[in-house]
Amino acid sequence: MHPHNHNDKQNPSKNHIHAHELLSLWHQRRDQYQWAVGLLIGIDGSSYRKPGAMMLFNELGQHYGLMSGGCLEQHLCQQAVKAINDDISVILSYDLDVPDLEITDIETDKLNSESQSNTTSDSQHWELAIGCGGSVTVFIAPLTAQNNYLSLASVYAAITQNQQCELNLIAKNGQASASIQSDCNSQACAQAPISSTSSYNSQSQQLSISFYPAIKLFICGAGVDAIPLANIADQMGWSVSINETRSQYQKPGRFLRSANTHAMTYDKIIDQANFIGADCIIIMHHNLELDRQALQAAHCSSARYIGVLGPTHRLNTLLELCELQASDFNQRLHGPCGLALGGDNPASVALSIISHCHAVIANASMKSLPL
């Protein structure tokens, strides 16, 4: 398995959700189309996405990303094309329970101004009355050379370089301007949440969006159960790396081409940024000596989640071989890794591991959603 990130496979059904994926797509095609960005800036009650969610639109009516489960995207796209053609920013307020759509032009009015409220057709009424019981507020603005593309090129550069950054937008007179602050502090990135966040001041019409690098997963071992683990992580927009030195697992095209693959010994892998700076490390060689080497190396990493496949007694054996104790990992070590979901095949095991990683990184309760 030679080091590369362009294997034969790709994921054609993937819907790009994470900011770094959306911005990468936009950055490649920035000069081919006219674009607008959509940002979820406020929610009240139930909402499919959280503040900070992003979409991108072009003048052809193509859109990327999600604001909902598919309920709002068509209307958002229509409004984005209009914003591109009119070269003006808008704020849209959707009530997902009561079929009433408010669209306010921020050039002349504040959010939720009754004087600028628009009424949709009966068919649109039916489409918007989806019964979620919440409301969402979305900001849409054109991306042009005149407004420096709202600094999104700088946002993309920052998160590509593993930096978190804050984008500050001021929307006045129907136009939007932006400034950006980057933070390359490793401690700040180590505590970063799963996805972007935002805040909005309706009085000053100022938006602040915090962007974070993609979650980085490093898989030690490329056996059959590593494949669904890498695939699920890729589907979620995570950055995936795999290390495997055994020739029987080094077949080209074994993993999606977005994965970074290595064939390095663990005394060398600790010099790799995607290992030492990984958010999650999963050790799954099914080989005691290779797992020992990986665990020893993982101890030196900044990973927030270090998972070891196998029963507790096997983990204790590995710790003894490493001359380490679980307490040396400052609660980062998880073995057996994964949540008890009741699965017993590679895909279900991968689901339980990714779920556990996600919960730890998001500092979530791992309980059922509240009623």
Describe the SSE topology:
Layout: H1 19-29, E1 35-44, E2 54-58, E3 63-65, H2 73-86, E4 90-95, E5 101-105, H3 122-128, E6 135-143, H4 152-160, E7 164-172, E8 175-183, H5 186-190, E9 197-201, E10 206-211, E11 216-220, H6 226-235, E12 239-243, E13 260-262, H7 266-269, H8 273-276, E14 280-283, H9 288-298, E15 305-308, H10 312-322, E16 333-334, H11 346-361
Parallel strand pairs: 11-12, 11-14, 12-13, 14-15, 15-16
Antiparallel strand pairs: 1-2, 1-6, 2-3, 4-5, 4-6, 7-8, 7-10, 9-10
- The separation of the N and C termini measures 48 Å
Coarse morphology: elongated
Which structural class should the secondary elements be placed in?
alpha/beta
Mean pLDDT, all residues:
83
In terms of DSSP E residues, the strand content is: 15-25%
Provide the succession of SSEs. HEEEHEEHEHEEHEEEHEEHHEHEHEH
How would you characterize the largest beta sheet? Answer: 6 strands, antiparallel
What's the helix count?
11
The tally of domains stands at 2
